[in-house]
Amino acid sequence: MRLLRVAMLPTSIRPDPKGVCAIVDVIRASTTLTTIAATPHSRTFIASTIQTARAAAEAIGPQAILAGERGGVAPDGFSYGNSPLEFATTDLTDRTIVLSTTNGTYAIEQWAGSQRTYIGCLRNARAVAGRLLSEPTDSLTIVCAGRDGQLAIDDVYTAGAIVSHIARTDADLNLDEAALTALHVWQAYKDSEQALSSSESAQLLKAVEHFDDVAFCAEEDVSVVVPEVGPDGHIHVWPD
Question: Where are the domains of the chain?
């Protein structure tokens, strides 16, 4: 029987090299990556550290854009932060984005050993569920990035939304206790904006004047784009 797990933090359980996973950092890295992936004729690379990001951008050349955040704001020398709203209105044609964030890119690096590593958020929750279910494996995992090594309720809520799509499609799927917990968290809120706006992640954005991103991150099932992280940190986009 197929098993759906939820990792409340990237280090909560071990990656399954024979399984597939979806990384969730809904505020904001996974939402930003999904937004960038919807832009045609652009490329994205993931970098876990600021130093790696700078080295990658230098190697790529003048078409590279350094983007990311530490503490919610762009590091020195980065052209962009980690705002999905900003990228939604930016022309990225023929540009290569190198993204490094506090929690999301760390989670991606920790789970890069999975057979396939997808990027999930509320905006593509249904599409991510479909990608996971389409894989010929009995091991599916949704990984919450968390915040500075602590549980993030916004990520758990988003994991629950993806679990709900999967469970409705495959009623015979076995859910581990963390998946059931995420599902109950998703059911406990009136809507996604309430869940996300009340989170500590959202309050951090308010402090750095990026709270407008929260409503964008809370939009559900508005994208069919599913980014996949390749072994070199390059983002492949489904559907291709």
Answer: 3-231
